[in-house]
């Protein structure tokens, strides 16, 4: 069974009617948080990520809160490269750090995101890390929904490396008879409207 089917089997990809944060009704829901309960799938994702970035040099890894954090952790273990943690909000006690972990000025940091919708969380994380004098030239995204995040990142001088494209996953699941032609067309139509 390939990784697309595994994600489908654990319900990381679901079809039906789902109300999104924006109140829009979507025929598809992607929830990669569930991968935390499947260490073998996390390991497999880390290996695929590691292969994708084998020619990129970086000193540390940082995940976008929250799901990107455990994806970054899996990659950190796989490559034996240190990780740092960017907080969602600054704490007002102790050291009051926004970024936890050990790093130096001008360290190259790879940012890890689970899925892009608008790319705003990813861009906010990149900007926050850059304010700590880290160099961010690459971001790896497990699932690219195709919402022009790649272009938005290019505008701020960061190259996006997608692990999977949502349309490829859908095509694969259709070929494996996991979704019907009708459902596939409905989702593609929905995604086209979201991306316009």
Walk me through this protein's architecture.
With 196 residues, the chain is an alpha/beta fold. The chain has one domain: Rossmann fold (3-Layer(aba) Sandwich), CATH 3.40.50. The chain is 39% helix and 25% strand. It contains seven helices and eight strands. A six-stranded mixed beta sheet has the order 5-4-3-6-7-8, with helices on both faces. Strands 1-2 form a two-stranded antiparallel sheet. Strand 1 and strand 2 form a beta hairpin. Helix 2 packs across helix 3. The chain starts with a helix and ends with a helix.
Summary of the model, kept short:
With 196 residues, this protein is of the alpha/beta class. Helix content is 39%, strand content 25%.
Shape annotation: globular
Main beta sheet: 6 strands, mixed
**Average predicted confidence as pLDDT:** 92
The assigned structural class equals alpha/beta
- The fold-level CATH name is Rossmann fold
Number of strands: 8
CATH class term:
Alpha Beta
- Flag low-confidence runs: none
Element-level helix/strand string = HEEHEHEEEHEHEHH
Helix content: 25-40%
Portion in beta strands: 25-35%
Counting structural domains, the number is 1
Order the strands across the largest sheet as they lie in space.
Answer: 5-4-3-6-7-8
> How many helical stretches?
7
The CA-CA distance between the termini, in Å, is 34 Å
């Amino acid at each position: 069974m390939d990784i697309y089917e595994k994600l489908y089997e654990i319900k990381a990809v679901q079809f039906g009617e789902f109300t999104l944060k924006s109140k829009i009704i979507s025929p598809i829901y992607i929830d990669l948080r569930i991968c935390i309960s499947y260490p073998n799938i996390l390991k497999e994702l880390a290996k695929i990520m590691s292969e994708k970035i084998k020619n990129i040099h970086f000193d540390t890894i940082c995940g976008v809160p929250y799901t990107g954090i455990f994806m970054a952790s899996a990659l950190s273990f796989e490559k034996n490269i240190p990780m740092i943690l960017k907080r969602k909000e600054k704490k007002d006690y102790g050291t009051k750090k926004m970024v936890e972990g050990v790093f130096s000025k001008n360290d190259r940091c790879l940012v890890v995101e689970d899925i892009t919708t608008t790319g705003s969380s990813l861009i906010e994380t990149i900007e926050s890390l850059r304010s700590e004098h880290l160099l961010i030239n690459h971001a790896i995204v497990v699932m690219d929904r195709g919402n022009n995040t790649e272009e938005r990142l290019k505008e701020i001088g960061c190259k996006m490396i997608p692990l999977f494209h949502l349309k490829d996953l859908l095509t694969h699941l259709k070929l494996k008879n996991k979704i019907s032609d009708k459902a596939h067309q409905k989702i593609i139509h929905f995604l086209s409207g979201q991306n316009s």
